[in-house]
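Re: the 173-residue chain
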Amino acid sequence: MKKLTIILLFISIICQGQPQMEFGTFLKTTDAELAPDYGICYKHEKRDVWNEVKVCGIMVSQITLAAASDALYDNGDKVESKLVELASLGILAYGAATFDINKFNWWRYLIKYTAFRIGTYDFTYNAIRGLPLDYIGNTGVWDKARQITSPPLGMQVWGKGIFFIAGATIPIN
């Protein structure tokens, strides 16, 4: 209880040290207008929501198809695996051609893709192979790292859900 009180006190002190600005004053500032006393320029950028939805959809569908391709290949369905892999690469090429990529923030795309991959790949692979959803392989580096903790299914769903939500909420602009 003492630690919680100290943490809350510390957070409140930090929050009071932040620059205060009335909400009405914030709305009145224009793109080029400087905020009084702080020298900070508040530039209002509108997020292109549909571009972000498109990026998320393309990334998730590409990862899902890649997992399906790997699962089909491991089941022995080589031809179907190659067709699904071709579809996966086609979606990736379409995304690369149509993304409105901000070259300054390229690392956000990488983090978003990684979060989606952690959140969707294993469950898709296991479902298509007919394995239990909490199955952890034993050949890859990722599988060996997960075997150290060997979390139960509920913990895996929770963790992968957190990564999926994080991938969906990371802004790319």
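The longest helix spans residues 49-75.
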